[in-house]
């Protein structure tokens, strides 16, 4: 962006320090995981979510077909070709990841250059990185290693393994699972190609990486030097930030912002309420939805979209895509082809549940949009300052569609189209973008400030992904403590007032603005005692 071309360290020292510290983290390829992965891949295995490497054949055209058989034939053909198209992308990604890992297999140190987007979010520039898929993250380990020397570090290490397998619930439950599986874990580590139950994990290759380290730790104890990146994830991070902005006690309790004996699970809460409402109105459509299965995984995408500008229509689209993807993967047609009808019905129920369960989050979204609307209508660019001091600019212009015609040889002419920006701002695009951009500027600030604090503590191995923070087991207790303290310090002030002031700096006397939102009674200091804020 042109506005940042002349930035120097003195302009945004927090952001510069965070980027440079993340770029200084040294990585290397996990050779043991690489060996298992390449063996499976070369054998054409489809375990551990590896994609099929062959194209599925089109179904044979029926002999003397009826009209219904022809329709079914073309539906099945479309499903198979969609599945092939999905697999092409997955195959390419896996193959490129393995080739990249092979290239750097003998390097003891790998560094990732990073870049910053206009909201302050920091990303590794290469496609292959620690912010990638389970394949890529499983292939990477820190070049630096540290021993696991106390119970707190050991528990963090064990909990990470349970997390990667997909074990939910309290820390004690996750630790108990690891203890119960000790024999299976150590046995599997000896020959993971023969004993492949690890491949059923939520994140199979990251779990495999942990499994191999676990076996060595159990054998060597504190003499084991761990290079494994552990990770702690936010509980509905976007909604966490909204609850902290609003000091909302109810939403804060549902997103892990207060001390709890067990982690809250907002996704499951919403799923349970949706099921309850579908059961209370047993229409044919609702019964079909219940038969299909309304679970946490299906609801997660819908709930996650709330802090990023969700609407009824966007949620319907999420459900329709989920229904179609499952029908492609299973080879069975869902809802007899009436995907839109069932997605609309589920979207309506879910949207009503969200309005009932998260009213303040939806009010916050509306308030943010209403705050900038007068500026956009008057063609005034929106700008605010994030907690790191970074000034964020948002100005999505209207565009006009233009056509280019190019000649190839003497006879063939090729036409293509592009969008040319105009001098006016798009009301629709700016209103759609403001909520996610503002929330992202906050999660970017938390990440950058936490990174800077870890640097001050002499901790150099970090894997930061905005709503998922990672480091070595040795340093994880310090990271989680710093994370809670930094977030408390950022949100102890009323950031909505700061945002309001930043936006209204651009208001003229004839522009009316919405009233400031009132905050709730959430005690922000409780955050430092909340073990399940990130877990």
Description:
The protein is mainly alpha-helical. Helices cover 52% and strands 11% of the residues. The protein has a three-stranded antiparallel beta sheet. Helix 1 packs across helix 17 and helix 11 (266-280) packs across helix 15 (339-357). The relative contact order is 0.12.
Please supply descriptive tags for the structure shown above.
19 helices, two-stranded antiparallel ribbon, 535 residues, mainly alpha
- Sheet-strand content, in percent, reads 5-15%
Helix content: 40-55%
Low-confidence stretches: none
Q: Globular, elongated, flat, extended or rod-shaped: what is the shape?
A: globular
Distance between the termini: 35 Å
* Number of DSSP-assigned strands: 13
Tell me about the biggest sheet?
3 strands, antiparallel
Please report the number of helical segments: 19
Mean pLDDT: 93
Using only CA atoms, what is the Rg? 25 Å
Content-based structural category: mainly alpha
Lateral strand order in the biggest sheet: 7-13-12
- Classify the oligomer: single chain
């Amino acid at each position: 962006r042109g506005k940042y071309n002349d930035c120097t360290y003195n302009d945004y020292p927090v952001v510069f320090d965070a980027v440079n510290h993340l770029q200084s983290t040294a990585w290397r390829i996990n050779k043991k995981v690489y060996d298992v992965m390449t063996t499976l891949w070369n054998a054409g295995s489809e375990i551990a979510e590896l994609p099929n490497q062959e194209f599925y054949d089109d179904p044979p055209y029926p002999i003397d077909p009826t009209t219904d058989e022809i329709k079914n034939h073309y539906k099945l053909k479309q499903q198979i070709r969609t599945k092939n198209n999905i697999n092409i992308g997955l195959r390419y990604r896996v193959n490129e990841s393995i080739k990249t890992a092979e290239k750097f297999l003998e390097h003891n140190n790998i560094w990732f250059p990073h870049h910053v987007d206009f909201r302050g979010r920091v990303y590794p520039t290469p496609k292959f990185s620690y912010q990638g898929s389970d394949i890529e993250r499983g292939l990477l380990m820190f070049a630096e290693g540290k021993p696991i020397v106390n119970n707190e570090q050991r528990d963090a290490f064990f909990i990470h393994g349970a997390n990667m397998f997909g074990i939910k619930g309290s820390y004690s439950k996750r630790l108990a699972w690891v203890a119960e599986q000790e024999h299976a874990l150590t046995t599997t580590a000896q020959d993971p190609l023969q004993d492949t139950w690890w491949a059923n994990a939520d994140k199979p290759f990251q779990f495999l990486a942990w499994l191999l380290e676990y076996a060595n730790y159990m054998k060597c104890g504190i003499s084991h030097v761990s290079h494994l990146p552990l990770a702690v994830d936010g509980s509905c991070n976007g909604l966490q930030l909204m609850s902290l902005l609003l000091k909302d006690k109810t939403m804060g309790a549902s997103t892990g912002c207060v001390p709890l004996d067990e982690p809250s699970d907002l996704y499951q809460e919403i799923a349970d309420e949706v099921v309850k409402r579908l059961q209370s109105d047993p229409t044919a459509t609702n019964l079909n939805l219940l038969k299909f299965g309304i679970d946490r995984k299906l609801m997660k995408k819908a709930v996650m979209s709330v802090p990023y500008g969700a609407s009824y229509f966007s949620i319907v689209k999420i459900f329709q895509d989920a229904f179609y993807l499952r029908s492609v993967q299973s080879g069975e047609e869902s809802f007899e082809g009436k995907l839109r009808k069932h997605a609309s019905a589920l979207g309506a129920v879910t949207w009503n549940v969200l309005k009932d369960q998260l009213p303040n989050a939806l009010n916050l979204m509306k308030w943010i949009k209403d705050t900038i609307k007068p500026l956009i209508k008057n063609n005034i660019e929106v700008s605010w300052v994030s907690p790191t001091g970074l000034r964020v600019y948002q100005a999505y212009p209207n565009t006009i569609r233009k056509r280019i015609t190019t000649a190839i040889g003497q006879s063939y002419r090729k036409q293509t189209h592009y969008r040319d920006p105009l001098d006016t701002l798009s009301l629709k695009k700016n209103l759609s973008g403001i909520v996610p951009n503002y929330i992202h500027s906050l999660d970017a600030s938390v990440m950058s400030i936490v990174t800077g604090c870890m640097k001050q503590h002499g901790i150099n191995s970090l894997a930061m992904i905005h709503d998922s923070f990672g480091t070595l087991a040795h340093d994880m207790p310090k990271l989680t403590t710093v994370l809670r303290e930094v977030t408390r310090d950022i949100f102890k002030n009323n950031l909505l007032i700061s945002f309001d002031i930043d936006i209204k700096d651009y208001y003229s006397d004839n522009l009316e603005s919405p009233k400031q939102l009132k905050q709730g009674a959430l005690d922000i200091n409780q955050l430092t005692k909340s073990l399940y804020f990130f877990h």
